[in-house]
Hints:
- The structure is a single chain.
- This protein has 296 residues and is mainly α.
- It has one domain.
- The protein is built from 15 helices and three strands.
- Strands 1-3-2 form a three-stranded antiparallel sheet.
- Helix 11 packs antiparallel against helix 12.
- It is globular, with a radius of gyration of 25 Å.
- It starts with a helix and ends with a helix.
Amino acid sequence: MKHAPKIKTKFKKFSVYLLKFIFIASFLFLLVWFNSKETSFNVNKLSRKEKKDLNVFLEYLLLREGGIYVLFGNKPIVFSSLCIISRERLRKNSENIPAIIKEKANRCKIKLKFKIEGWEKVQKHFKIKGKYLLFFKKHEEAGIADVYFINKANLISVLNEYYDIFKKRIDFDFDPLTIINEFNEDNSKFWSLVQRDIVLQGLIFGYGKTNSLLFEQWLKTDQKNKQTIEKLGFYTANNHLVDANIKVNYQNFPLPVFRSFPNDVILEKYKKERQKIIALYRGRDPLKVTIEKLCE
């Protein structure tokens, strides 16, 4: 029994060493895991110009078009039609451009600076998570590209929540879980009908039922009634979409663009989402935060 204290002392020393070993090993494991997680997005493989062009692309898609609410919030979709050629070439090619596409392209001052190549040239380094869909429909002859960014879960939720409205307006049954797979198919009957319906577009863009129905009514009424409704506050600001002098960043970006009355429930929801998103980016590299959320 006289050796018991020595045994206890040795055991204590062994325990201390073991705990130190476990702590150091755990720390090294986490360090390696974190670094591998960070480099798996291949941000560091990009050149300075590639990073700059990618940041320009993401700034427009996320901050100006509202894609950041698709990435981090409850907004299902953002969409934009953008010039992919110079304004001079666009004018020269005017006769060959379909009227509907020409109308879309006629908005842009800032949009000429938005280059989809900023994503196309670097996308080989990234794999977008399955919950998101990012794709372009190019109209090469017109110099226009339609850009779509979709949160599939948010879109399914909207299709389920407003199923009766969709069914009534398109006049046939559909499965919300599978119909989203047809979104980027040109021959999809469902999405072709949705894209021609103002109310259904409002729903999939995350504007809410009330705002979508009111917007349709506002479009159909005469100019006098339009002005009356606008004086009641049915208004939106979208200058940041067309004016490059209006600066945006990840600590100061606009709400999604849609007409609503003051204190609208949907608008208030986006205000809360914006504050949470600002907190996520605060003090961090915006590109890394975005890629970590967007990509596997």
